[in-house]
Prior knowledge:
The chain is of the alpha+beta class and 316 residues long. The chain is built from 8 helices and 11 strands. Among the domains are: 23-132, Immunoglobulin-like (Sandwich); 199-309, no CATH class.
Amino acid sequence: MKIAKIYLGIIFILACISxxxxxxxxxxxxxxxxxxxxxxxxxxxxxxxPKSKTVIWPIxxxxxxxxxxxxxxxxxxxxxxxxxxxxxxxxxxxxxFDSGSFTIPAMEFIYDLxxxxxxxxxxxxxxxxxxxxxxxxxxxxxxxxxxIKGEPYTxxxxxxxxxxxxxxLGLIGFGIYAYRRYKANKPIFNMxxxxxxxxxxxxxxxxxxxxxxxxxxxxxxxxxYSELTNIMxxxxxxxxxxxxxxxVSSEIIGSLSNEDLSKDLVEKTEEILQTxxxxxFAKYEPLGNVNDAAIKWAYNFVNSTKEITQDKEAEK
Length: 316
């Protein structure tokens, strides 16, 4: 009797594990597994997941392997399947300039991310792409090279003619303007530039403007996260002197980890940036409290990391 209970317990645990694994399913396919060298075909992904989960897709560069290149990356298409599940599909146009049979390896999708070493993952099936060359009839004679074909003017060739003319006309116009200002005893240039506010003052002002727009409350969630992350990227770039506006989220987190910041602040920043990426690129729709927490994080981040100048210390 005890042995039977033990077996039933093991079966129950395995069933739970299997059910958990089935929550996130990913399938890969290609429109055709046989192409001519240089031809193109679609590599398709379909991800089925609960709405409540955040699934991190693999990052694709311009190649999948040394023999297979990505020509174009399609947009993510999200479909609500009901029962709390969604389907996300993506197409990648691929090609190959080598002949042979090449394997498209299994791709891993990560979810339930808790740390660098604690997470769940689901992998696609591997695929085989056969690339053939054109058959050459060696019994026929070689054909002569075709004659030179005339090409239309390129934009650069046109600009090389037009730009000098525009420059000369501009200089003539500026000379006339400068002469008239001189004769009227007026300065040629009358520009006054305001000093740039400090990074924290600029960021807080921009965050206040963003908050007053009520974007996420009016279902403009993508615009809300785009503006929020743009404000924070600019602040981080000015505050820590690295090009945050040109970096992806993971690079920003890597650079912030080298600064004198608390672990909790860096982890919260990573969470907000990941949520923003999902909203912008995977049509993810966070709950209202998540959206409100995002701007509260931004205010907290700026106030926790702003530089204390001598003037501000004197005011204290």
